[in-house]
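Before going further, learn to read the protein records used in this course. A complete example follows; check for yourself that the lines match position by position.
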Amino acid sequence: MKLTCIGAGRLVLPNPGVAKAHGWEHGLPLEAKVRIDLSALGPPGTIAEVGRLCVLDRWRGKTAALPELCVAMCLESRRHGVTHWISAANLECDSEDEAILVHEVIRRRGLMRSDIPVRLRTADRPRPPARFRFYTDEERGRAIAGDLSGLRLPRAVSTDAKLGARYIGEPIWDEHFGMFAQPLIAAVQDVMTAAERHLRALARAQGRR
C-alpha cells in the first residue's frame, strides 16, 4: 500500500548550545527576532518552537488531519519535557499598516496576552510599496471609520487561536515569507485538549451520518 503524506509540522527543541552562542534564552529560531521572557512559565528546557504546520487542501476543514498532527506534536513535546510552544502566525500581508490593523482585531477579540514581556530584537521592515494586503478596501474603510466588528482574521491566526494559542507582542517582519507575522505562545496541554475536543466532535458528527 502506498503511503501519502497529507500534513507536516516542525518542532524545534530548545538548544542550550545555540542559546549560549547567541545570548538567547532557549536557542530557538524566533529568538533572532524577539526576546520573549517566559521565565514565569518554566525554565528554558521546557520551551520549544513550532512552525510550518501544513495540511493538503483536500484534507483541510472537516477532517482529522490537523488535530491528529497537533496531538502527535504534543506527545513528542511531552516526551522531551516541553510544556509550552512559541511561534508566529502568518498575517498574510506585507503592509505594516495592515499588520497593525490585524493586531488590533486580535486584541479586541481577547486573543492577546499582556503578561508575557516581548521585545523586538530587530526593526526589519519591508520596502514599500506593499504588494499583499489582507483586508478589502471596504473592510479598510470600515476600520478607518472605527468599526472593527466582523473583520476577518488570517487563517493561521484563527486556527492557532482555536487550538489554544494566544498572541503576544507586536507584529514582526518575516523576510523568508515576505509577510508580517504575529508571535504567539501556547501551552502544550491546552493544544492537546483543544485537538482532542475537535477529534471527539468529528467522531460524533461522523456517527450521525
